[in-house]
Amino acid sequence: MIHLQHIRKLYQTSDVETVALDNISLRINQGDFVAIMGPSGCGKSTFLNILGMLDNPTSGKYIFDGKDISNASEATLLEIRKVKLGFIFQSFNLIDELTVEENLELGLIYNHVGRQDRKARVRTMMERVGISHRGRHFPHQLSGGQQQRVAIGRALVGNPLLVLADEPTGNLDSAHGHEVMSMLRELNNAGTSIVMVTHSGEHAQWAKRTIQLLDGRVAGNDGEATD
Amino acid sequence: MIHLQHIRKLYQTSDVETVALDNISLRINQGDFVAIMGPSGCGKSTFLNILGMLDNPTSGKYIFDGKDISNASEATLLEIRKVKLGFIFQSFNLIDELTVEENLELGLIYNHVGRQDRKARVRTMMERVGISHRGRHFPHQLSGGQQQRVAIGRALVGNPLLVLADEPTGNLDSAHGHEVMSMLRELNNAGTSIVMVTHSGEHAQWAKRTIQLLDGRVAGNDGEATD
Ligand SMILES: Nc1ncnc2c1ncn2[C@@H]1O[C@H](COP(=O)(O)OP(=O)(O)OP(=O)(O)O)[C@@H](O)[C@H]1O
Ligand SMILES: Nc1ncnc2c1ncn2[C@@H]1O[C@H](COP(=O)(O)OP(=O)(O)OP(=O)(O)O)[C@@H](O)[C@H]1O
Ligand SMILES: [Mg+2]
Ligand SMILES: [Mg+2]
């Protein structure tokens, strides 16, 4: 389903060149559940952003469903992201001017779902992540963990084929963290592919395999081999 | 040193009243190291903001160093915060337009420290939290955990008497998390009082006592009794 080959990502600031990713190759198949761990600053979010087509690699190939999208136009990438990807951001990226309900509805914007159906799906998701009582609040009126759960809900409400989650339980107590992991496990059992960055060794156990990154490279992994 | 009595905090939005804190009383003595845990949304950040004089309780008393500051002016509170408090925010609150070095220097702005001394202290702190190579970067050019470490550095660089930390290790891998906790332990040994909100049971162990919050109330605590 996804084949990343020799991905490199460089950042250039006025006096420092950062090699954020240094030759990463990875295959992700339909139904996979991969956890990515590694020290702060080692390239996990950068990797996830490239996987999620939100950023371009400096060099290397990205094959998606057999098609080389390494140099695809923004329009093409948008089409793929719209129907296939759900992204949970490390810093949530909620829209401050929209209520919780409206933020969640954004996750259905490309699904061509009728209004009734959309309202019902949003209501179900709010119950699922435990924020039903916050539907008409704005993000700044929520706790950190509540904001995280809205971000999770928005990514999942549209039933994407591939979920990219950047530290989805970082602001959650163990009970809520467990809730989120069991929701991801359930989705994976139903066929959704998941790539999850996490600092929690405990939550990484829920995945089928774990990949360790270090200084922008794959340091080691268990389960299926990367190439 | 700090005595909070019967603190209540209510939020009113158009159709929902939230009782964020419902009768919290707590004593914090010089040299204390208190961990606060509890489910997402139970009132921990709200409590810390009131403790840090960034927010006023709806009712209840706040005695600081024997002085009732429950109705103190913003000017008075600012004076106390400036010299005595260091705050690590759950969402970091870094200044986007300033470099990492400049953000750290903000922590010394009230210390009347000469330029040479200020530069030296900032350099030491950057080494301490492992971001020396990022001094001239801007917050958006850092990883989530690097931003968190800048937030930590800024709060601690001025040697405050009381450190209020809202989930300071949420975005850190276990090695960096350990670094941060041992830095807090060291400060506490030297006399700094610390109140730390955390979702990590493991990091709560570094404190002298843990208080559990639930639905805006103190649910239980170990070590010294609260009143
Ligand atoms: N400005 C506001 N208006 C309305 N409700 C608010 C506001 N700020 C916070 N709340 C509510 O007050 C309650 C406590 O929030 P708080 O941020 O203290 O929780 P928390 O324990 O820090 O949670 P977390 O672990 O998720 O960070 C939450 O239910 C939250 O939605
Ligand atoms: N726009 C940018 N310009 C320069 N350097 C950047 C930029 N964005 C990220 N970096 C650097 O690239 C490296 C990898 O960042 P990334 O966000 O992928 O780390 P991470 O593994 O997700 O870390 P964390 O666990 O702290 O979230 C870091 O050293 C970071 O400072
Ligand atoms: Mg990251
Ligand atoms: Mg909080």
The general outline of chain A is: globular
Oligomerization state: homodimer
Tell me which protein chains meet in the greatest interface and how many residues each side has. A-B, 37 and 37 residues
Classification by helices and strands of chain A: alpha/beta
In round numbers, the mean pLDDT of chain A is 94
Strand order of the largest sheet of chain A: 6-7-8-3-9-10
Helix-strand string of chain A: EEEHEEHEHHHEHEHEE
Instruction: Tell me the helix content of chain A.
Output: 25-40%
Total helix count of chain A? 7
How does the major sheet of chain A shape up? 6 strands, mixed
Q: What is the strand content of chain A?
A: 25-35%
Q: Can you walk me through this structure?
A:
The structure is a homodimer of 227-residue chains. With 227 residues, the first copy, chain A, is an alpha/beta fold. Helices cover 32% and strands 27% of the residues of chain A. Chain A has helices at 44-51, 74-84, 100-105, 115-129, 144-156, 174-189, 201-204; strands at 2-12, 17-28, 33-37, 59-64, 67-68, 85-88, 162-166, 193-197, 209-214, 217-221. In chain A, the strands form two sheets. In chain A, strands 6-7-8-3-9-10 form a six-stranded mixed sheet, sandwiched between helices. In chain A, strands 2-1-4-5 form a four-stranded antiparallel sheet, covered by helices on one side. The first copy, chain A, is globular and about 45 Å long. The interface between A and B is large, with 37 and 37 residues. One adenosine-5'-triphosphate (ATP) sits between chains A (11, 13, 18, 20, 38, 40-46, 90) and B (134, 141-146, 171).
